[in-house]
Amino acid sequence: MSRRVVAIVNPRSANGRTAKAWPRIHALLRAQVGELDVRLTERPQHATELVREALVDGADEIIAVGGDGTGNEVVNGFFDAEQRPLRPETVLTVVPSGTGGDFRKTLGLGNDPSEVSRLFSRGTIILADVGWMRCKGFDGVQAFRYFLNITSFGIGGMVDDAVNRTTKRLGGKASFFLGTFRAFARYRRQPMRLEVDDRVVYEGPVFNVAVANGQYHGGGMWVAPMADPTDGLLDVVILGDLGTAGFLALTRRIYAGTHLKSPDVVHVRGRFLRATTTGDTLIDMDGETPGRLPIEVGLHAAAVRLRTLVPFGAGCASHS
């Protein structure tokens, strides 16, 4: 029997450029997998609904076409309302076409549609971990979501808010860089208590915290260079009591992935994080803003079969 492949396409990603690029991407995909069922998203969270429907119908592979936000919605569709995996044997393939494009870097992918051919001809399938987070939603009700890449809080949540309120025509890196400086004007370092695996690892003012399953966020910052989405652990990277000058001095090192040795950075690993604050701190999750602190973050190990160009394992890191 032939495999059933479903493409979930967000035509609005990359400020609408995905809609224009889709005919070429579609042709490349058909050359690799044959006929495929194409479903276009029409509203926020629609991708999650479409994936759940496809998995219930027996899809063997889901192809997510869009940015990091689209990938986030898609992976949420791999689980039902009771947080159970719907179809563990289904493969997830990410075809990047978005503003940020951070998770693709962890997978060794560029941002050109021609990467599709390389991914299918040279890629491998890994059992990837999937993070989950529970926080206070903007409506005051507890929010729960999964993520493939990174959940962060501090200035990261405010950057997302700034980026998502403005045009993304400048592209990922420029949009996030501009959003960062807009956020500087409003953000005040928040007092936080951070526990990893029920051990207090930090208490004091925080500039930003990244809880990482992937390696990059913020439009290309290599914030967690040692993160491996197959090791069953979250990498927690804490930028502590940094002011504007301190962050600017550290920025080049963050993009290069050499910042973990800085005395202003704390790096720990674990399976569960809890963070509380007396302030008002927004959360960033794969480029979206789902709510604010307090937050709990955990991990489902080896939860999704994911196509990648990087053969992850002990000591393996992506430099794409």
Q: What is the terminal-to-terminal distance?
A: 36 Å
Considering DSSP H and I runs of 4 or more, what fraction of the residues is helical?
25-40%
Q: How many domains, in number, for the residues?
A: 2
Report the biggest beta sheet as strand number plus sense, adding barrel if it closes: 10 strands, mixed
Number of helices: 8
Nearest-integer average pLDDT: 89
- Which descriptor suits the 3D outline? globular
Number of strands: 15
CATH architecture of the largest domain: Sandwich
Rounded to the nearest angstrom, the radius of gyration is 19 Å
Structural class: alpha+beta
pLDDT under 50 segments (min length 5)?
314-320
Q: What's the CATH class of the largest domain, please?
A: Mainly Beta
Please give a structural write-up.
The chain contains 8 helices and 15 strands. It has 320 residues and is of the alpha+beta class. The protein has 2 domains: 130 residues, Probable inorganic polyphosphate/atp-NAD kinase, domain 1 (Rossmann fold); 171 residues, Sandwich (Tumour Suppressor Smad4), CATH 2.60.200.40. The strands form 2 sheets. Strands 1, 2, 3, 4, 5, 6, 8, 9, 13 and 15 form a 10-stranded mixed sheet that branches. Helix 2 crosses helix 3. The radius of gyration is 19 Å and the shape is globular. The chain starts with a strand and ends in a 12-residue tail after the last strand.
